[in-house]
UniProtKB/TrEMBL annotation:
The keyword S-adenosyl-L-methionine does not apply. GO terms for molecular function: monooxygenase activity. The keyword Oxidoreductase applies. InterPro entries: ABM_dom (IPR007138), Dimeric_a/b-barrel (IPR011008), Heme-degrading_MO (IPR050404). This is Antibiotic biosynthesis monooxygenase. SUPFAM superfamilies: Dimeric alpha+beta barrel. Residues 2-90 form the ABM domain. It comes from the Bacteria. Gene3D superfamilies: 3.30.70.100. Signal peptide: none annotated. Keywords: Monooxygenase, Oxidoreductase.
Length: 101
C-alpha cells in the first residue's frame, strides 16, 4: 500500500470553509485505478493545519493518478478559487510506502 499526505496551512478562521470544500469534493480520485481511500485530517492544536491523506494500492497507481487529466483538471480549478488567499496555498506533500500494518 502507498499513502500520500498533502499538508497545508490556512488561516484558522478559514479552516471550516476549507473542510466544507473537501466534504463536497468531486470524488474523481475515487475512480482512479488503485485508489483505496481518502481522509481529511485537522490538527487538534492547530486548526488551520489540514492534511489530505490518500491511499493507493501501490506507487504506480498513485503516479498514474497524478499524471492524469482528471488530476490536472481538479488542480486547475483550485487555482481559480475566488479566495486568492486560499488559492495560492502550496501544500507540503510527503509520500510513504506502507511497510507494516
Amino acid at each position: 500500500m502507498y499513502t500520500v499526505f498533502s499538508t497545508f496551512l490556512v488561516p484558522d478562521h478559514k479552516a471550516d470553509e476549507v473542510i466544507g470544500l473537501y466534504q463536497k469534493r468531486s470524488r474523481r480520485v475515487d475512480k482512479a485505478p488503485g485508489f483505496l481511500d481518502f481522509l481529511l485530517l485537522q490538527n487538534e492544536k492547530k486548526p488551520g493545519e489540514i492534511t489530505v491523506q490518500l491511499f493507493f494500492t501501490d506507487k504506480d497507481s498513485y503516479l498514474t493518478w497524478v499524471r492524469s487529466s482528471e488530476f490536472k483538471r481538479i488542480h486547475e480549478l483550485e487555482k481559480k478559487y475566488p479566495d486568492q488567499e486560499l488559492a495560492n496555498i502550496v501544500p507540503k506533500v510527503t509520500q510513504h510506502q506502507v511497510v507494516a500494518r
